Amino acid sequence: MYVDDILITSNDDSTIFSIISKLKNEFVMKDLGDLSHFLGIEVAHDHTGLHLRKSKYITDLLDRANMVGARPYKAPAFLVQR
After folding, report:
1. pLDDT of residue 1
2. What are the backbone angles phi and psi of residue 13, rounded to the nearest 5°?
3. Could you tell me if 19 and 27 are in contact, meaning their C-beta atoms sit under 8 angstroms apart?
4. Distance in angstroms (rounded) separating the CA atoms of residues 10 and 5
5. What pLDDT score does 2 carry?
6. How far apart are the two ends of the chain, measured CA to CA in Å?
7. pLDDT, position 19
8. Distance of CA 21 to the CA centre of its chain
9. Alpha-carbon span 61 to 64, nearest angstrom
10. 3-state secondary structure of 37
């Protein structure tokens, strides 16, 4: 069996190291270190925690739609009451 990516997270570093150690005893694997990207999601770390964003995905999507550099358009919104 081939697993492409796995993400292990916890508030307790010793738990993470223990799980990784057990997995390495059973499987051929490598630890890629601190998370920076996962399944197309960019991950940034700071003192408040993890911040997830998909700006590269959005940029690629705009590029495919030939909308890079397009400006936002303000349109009135109407509230429909039932």
Report:
1. 59
2. -60, -35
3. no
4. 17
5. 65
6. 55
7. 92
8. 24
9. 5
10. strand
Identify the residue whose tokens are 């003192």.
47
pLDDT tens-place values along the chain, 82 residues long: 566 778 888 889 899 999 999 998 988 888 888 888 888 889 998 888 889 999 888 888 899 999 999 888 888 887 777 7
In this prediction the pTM is 0.54
Report phi then psi at 67, rounded to 5: -120, 15
Tokens of 44: 């940034």
Give the strand order in the sheet containing 41-46: 37-38, 41-46, 49-53
Residue in the block written with tokens 């005893």: 25
Cα of 29 vs its chain's centroid, Å: 21
Two tokens, residue 13: 């570093």
Amino acid, single-letter form, for residue 26: E
